[in-house]
Structures are given as C-alpha cells and as structure tokens.
Amino acid sequence: MKATAVAPSNIAFIKYWGKKDEALRLPLNGSVSMNLSNLLTTTTVEFNKNFKKDIIIIDGKRDLKEEGRVINHLNRIRKIAKIKLKAKVVSQNNFPKSSGLASSASGFAALTLAATKAAGLNLSQKQLSILARQGSGSACRSIPDGFVEWLKGEDNETSYAYSLFPPSYWKIIDVVVIVVKEEKKIKSSQGQKIVLKNPFLKTRLFYIKEKIKKIKQFIAKKDFPQFGELLENEALEFHAIALTSNPPIIYWQPETLKIVHLVREWRNHGLLVYFTIDAGPNLHLFCEEKNQQFLMKKLKFVKEVKKIIVNYPSEGARITDKHLF
Ligand code: PMV
Fold first, then answer.
1. Which of 35, 207, 277, 317 could serve as 8's disulfide partner, Cβ 3.0–4.6 Å?
2. 288: left (phi > 0), else alpha (psi -120 to 50), else beta?
3. 103 within ligand 1 shell (Cβ under 6 A)
4. 239-280 pLDDT tens trace
C-alpha cells in the first residue's frame, strides 16, 4: 500500500483570504489561480501494519510544526478508507518552504493524492479537491490542471476547484523572483484569522465576485494587459488588507518594493510585465512567452534578486512511480 504523487504549487490571481468555516476551511470568497510547472512537491505515502506510529519526513527531516496537521489529514483519509494502519510519509519540495511560495498548497495536494491511492481509494478529481481543501485551503486548486477556479461553495461538498482551461491554453510565464529566503514569520493560517476583524474586508468581499468574473473573461480572451492590470490591483488590495489588519501583517521587505517599482518602470518603457505577491516577500512576475528573455535580461542586473524560478502553466496533481523510499 504505497503510492507517490507530484503536485504543483499554484499562484492565485484572485486570492483566498478569510474563512467562513475554520475546521472545514470554507473560504469567504472564491479564487482563481494557475498551477506552476517548477514549484513541485513529491510525496510518497505507505500504510503498513508493521508501523507503530505515523512517521512524517519533510525535506529530509521531521517537522514537528507540520506533523499534527499532516496526521490530521491522514486521519481524514483513514476514516474514508475505513483503515487504521499507520503511515510513513516522505515529502520533498524543490523550492524553499514557507517563503510565500505556497508549499502547503503543493504539499497537501500531493499528500491527498498519494495517501488516498495508498489507502486503496480511487477518488474523483472533485473529491480529491474537497479533501485537499481541508488540509490547506489553496491546496484544492493544485489538484485540477492549468488555470483553475475554486468555487467558494456553501458547504463541504460544494467548495472545490475545477479546471477553467488546460495548461496549454495560454502561454504566459510566471517568473518567481526570490528576494528573501527566510521562512515567513506569520503563517497564512494566522493571517486568515486576523483578517476577519478587518473593517475593509466587507468592501473587498462586495467587489470580489465581479473581479472573479473579469479575470476569467481576460483569461478566456487572452487579454494580457487587462489581465495584468487586474492581477496587480488584486495583489495590492490583498496586501492593503493584510497591512490594515490588527495586528498588522507586513509581508513586504524593502527588496519587494524595489521590484514593484522596477516592474512599473519597465512597463512604462514598453515591457509588458505585471506582478503579484502572496503571503510573503517574494514576487511572481507575469509576462507573455515572447517577452521572457527580455525580462530575464532585465532581472539579471537587479542585485536584490537572489533566485529566479521560471514557471509555465502546469498540469495538476498526478501519480508517479518514482517513490521516495
Ligand atoms: O492556503 P493557505 O492557508 O496557505 O492560504 C493561501 C493564501 C494566499 O496564498 C495569500 C492566497 C491564495 O489564494 O493562494
């Protein structure tokens, strides 16, 4: 009873921030994202009667902070599969954990697929998305392929993600620009709680349906400038909400702001590039395929840039036979 899955991280164009149900991780609003080809988690899960307890190894070591959450997720799966066996879970990220690059999304998507398969279950994509959501909200968007919408839904059964368009639909590039490598100090799960008392959240939620409709239209039409304008507007709004929460959450570092200004300057000089930023200091820069080399050249001369990861739209979680143990 061993299975291995690979799952991509995803970047939200319209972001999920705030839950209406903490235990089930039901979001206050829907969101739209793209799966990322080069930010991957591989996870092998084995259920075995010889195991006395669950063993969780992430990036080569035991991670006591994450262990409880992973075991809770295994328990959900054991309950569905009606098994009591303990598991060994080995998980490997190909990017720095907790740097705002959403390792929990790829992590819980890979865990969901690998553990359900290892437990002998054969769930539909919708069922996998529902289950992944309960491990980490944004993980539900790493299950389907390409460009994805997470329907906020009303309850456990209606809140899941599905594919809007396959990865090949639109050749846009997400250049992840890492300016700070340290783990972030405020976990997104904490931020998601704090935001509930933010008076500006109401206004955000009032307009967000329209934003989701628009971003889907711009993707459908492959209208890059309109898509990019909305992408930035949403990123800035998300950080405005984080900044005005109590206590405030300041994800940006000076290097983040430096790149924000550079992107705007490059755009003023004709290079169509737009940014978005998740719950951390690093940035995702979007351009069309034809401008990729030009953007890379520009970034080469920016001293704040520590590392670059180029991503294309990607397929979602999938099974592989390359086990980690
Ligand atoms: O799934 P979580 O709890 O890590 O929250 C993700 C929150 C953002 O990345 C900031 C936005 C999003 O929709 O991915």
1. 35
2. beta
3. no
4. 999 999 999 999 999 999 999 999 999 999 999 999 999 998
- Gap between the Cα atoms of 145 and 161, Å rounded: 10
**Which residue's CA lies nearest to atom 9 of ligand 1?**
278
Q: What is the pLDDT of residue 184?
A: 63
Render 26-74 in DSSP notation, one character per residue.
Answer: EESS-EEEEEEEEEEEEEEEEEETT-SS-EEEETTB--HHHHHHHHHHH
CA dist., res. 109 & res. 324, Å (int): 17
With a 6 A CB cut-off, is 278 part of the ligand 1 pocket? yes
Pocket residue to mutate for ligand 1, from 26, 138, 237, 249, most atoms within 8 A of Cβ: 138
Pair of tokens at residue 30: 């829907």
- The Å distance, Cα 54 to ligand 1 centre, comes to 27
- Identify the sign of the CA torsion 64, 69, 70, 75: positive
Q: Is the peptide bond before 247 cis (omega within 30 degrees of 0)?
A: yes
Cα–Cα distance for residue pair 281/100, rounded to 1 Å? 7
